[in-house]
Amino acid sequence: MLVWLDEVAATWACSVCQNPNMVTVKIDEMVFKKPVKSGEQVNIYGEVKEMGTTSMTMYVEARNKNYYTHEEQAVCSTYFTFVRIDEQGNAIPIPETVRNKYPKKAD
């Protein structure tokens, strides 16, 4: 489940930050609230929480969905922090136009 969340969050971070090179630098405590059984549908949701000069933090939550009632229940959640990098692996600024759309990281 953690791999799924990281892949989805990283893909979304790349899209938000307009760069194909975002790296995971931190995963906060992962809270597993209930197991996911084989064959269950899992939906993953996220929200940008903070945007820094070169990094962003987002909240990510996975929910399983009941096929019959369409109700969703949270199964796990965490915060991911990503850094925007260039081809050499150096941190580079997130465009100001992107940074201005999201809450600023507290210094």
CATH topology annotation: Thiol Ester Dehydrase, Chain A
- Classify the secondary structure makeup into a structural class: alpha+beta
Strand content: 35-45%
Low-confidence parts, pLDDT < 50 over ≥5 residues? Answer: none
Number of helical stretches of at least 4 residues: 2
Describe the structure.
The structure is a single chain. The chain is of the alpha+beta class and 107 residues long. The protein has a single domain (2-99), classed as Roll (Thiol Ester Dehydrase, Chain A). Helix content is 18%, strand content 40%. Strands 1, 2, 3, 4 and 5 form a 5-stranded antiparallel beta sheet that branches. 20% of the residues are buried.
Essential attributes:
18% helix; elongated; 5-stranded antiparallel β-sheet; Thiol Ester Dehydrase, Chain A; 107 residues; single chain; 2 helices
Please outline what is shown here:
This protein is of the alpha+beta class. The chain has helices spanning 2-16, 96-99, and strands at residues 22-27, 31-32, 41-51, 55-65, 72-84.
What's the topology here?
Layout: H1 2-16, E1 22-27, E2 31-32, E3 41-51, E4 55-65, E5 72-84, H2 96-99
Antiparallel strand pairs: 1-5, 2-5, 3-4, 4-5
